[in-house]
Specification:
Elements (H helix, E strand, L loop, with lengths): L4 H21 L26 H4 L5 H4 L7 E2 L5 E3 L5 E5 L2 E7 L4 E5 L5 E5 L2 E11 L5 E2 L2 E2 L2 E9 L8 E10 L13 E2 L11 E7 L7 E8 L3 E3 L1 H10 L20 E3 L9
Parallel strand pairs: 1-8, 2-16, 11-14, 11-15
Antiparallel strand pairs: 3-6, 4-5, 4-12, 5-7, 6-7, 7-10, 8-9, 10-11, 13-14, 13-16
Helix pairs in contact: 1-4
This protein binds 2-acetamido-2-deoxy-beta-D-glucopyranose (NAG) (5 copies).
The site of one 2-acetamido-2-deoxy-beta-D-glucopyranose has 6 residues, from strand 14.
Length: about 270
């Protein structure tokens, strides 16, 4: 007998992508400016990562920026800070829509409705999450199977860094429950597993055009699990011919990488 749980997981995940395709077809007016084929991940291609900065004037930072993401999170370079730092998460279930943007699959919650994280007293509201495969950030040169980005923005007009991205890395193993989410409409961001309390923190950029800088990055140190089948389906759904959507590692240019680690948590980096 074959493993009986497999087809169930598969169909739930397939539903997720059918939804993705359907919502792409019914894309709203606000999203029409997102041309899915304006850039891609084909190394050496006309619209590949090394050419992004030349495609549009507004994308100049992709080529000339000096605080770009992703980077290698090298344990030799980090400054260890023996406390968690002031990050509080307060997410809640909210209506969301899925869109296949061609270069990734994005899940977007209704504006500012899915809760927030507070970094050093500044509130950043969760807007959307999307997936990259393989991972964009590497830890000590290791590239993982998948990376989830939870994108948050601050509504305070006087904040200099108005975007904060929480990144989670996944290695292949057990299936990830959040990716098998069946619910249509209301999606609970608390379903995203975030183990441990240690994380990397540095200032970088968006990893897709326009590659805007001043983005606060927080990368969880604990590696999550995702099944090979989930990664395969995610890669297939993305319309990029290279079937991967990870920007290459960018130069650190002297930036500081901090590693927040509570006293009681014994993690190795
Ligand atoms: C989701 O949207 C439906 C339909 O617009 C609404 O009835 C429901 O209250 C919403 N739920 C949440 C949690 O926002
Ligand atoms: C919060 O602010 C303090 C003081 O300015 C700073 O030392 C710390 O690194 C900040 N934490 C984060 C996560 O940015
Ligand atoms: C922004 O302004 C608000 C109220 O005007 C203030 O409470 C907050 O500390 C300010 N934040 C920064 C980063 O200056
Ligand atoms: C905000 O971004 C600037 C670069 O644009 C960086 O120098 C600064 O450290 C960032 N501030 C925080 C609190 O991350
Ligand atoms: C991932 O799977 C391993 C077993 O291979 C398990 O020890 C670990 O706790 C899992 N990680 C998370 C974040 O669930």
């Amino acid at each position: 007998m074959k493993n009986r749980s497999k087809p169930v997981l598969f169909s739930a995940f397939t539903l997720f992508f059918l939804l993705a395709l359907r919502s792409a077809a019914a894309s709203s007016v606000a999203e029409e400016d997102e041309d899915e084929k304006e850039f891609d991940y084909i190394v050496g291609g006309d619209r590949g990562p090394t050419k992004w900065g030349e495609i549009k004037e507004e994308w100049e930072a992709c080529g000339k920026g000096e605080m770009q993401s992703p980077i290698d999170l090298s344990s030799k370079r980090v400054r260890v800070i023996p406390k968690t730092g002031e990050i509080e998460r307060s997410y809640k279930p909210s209506n969301a829509s899925v869109k296949n943007r061609g270069h990734d699959i994005r899940l977007r919650w209704d504006k500012d409705s899915a809760g927030s994280i507070t970094i050093n007293g500044t509130v950043y509201y969760l807007q959307q999450c999307h997936w990259h495969s393989p991972s964009e950030h590497t830890i000590d040169g290791i590239r993982y199977a998948l990376e989830l980005h939870m994108v948050h923005t601050s509504l305070e007009p006087n904040v200099t860094n108005s975007t904060a991205v929480f990144g989670l890395l996944y290695k292949t193993g057990d299936a990830d429950a959040f990716l098998d989410e069946r619910q249509v409409g209301v999606i609970d961001p608390r379903g995203i597993v975030m183990g441990g309390r240690s994380y990397f923190n540095y200032v970088g950029s968006l990893t897709v055009p326009p590659c805007s800088e001043g983005v606060i990055w927080i990368i969880n140190n604990e590696i999550n699990n995702v099944s090979m089948n989930q990664v395969r389906l995610l890669r297939k759904a993305v319309k990029d011919d290279s079937e991967k959507n990870a920007r290459p590692i960018q130069a650190l240019n002297g930036r500081e990488i901090r590693f927040f680690q509570p006293h009681h948590e014994k993690t190795s980096i």
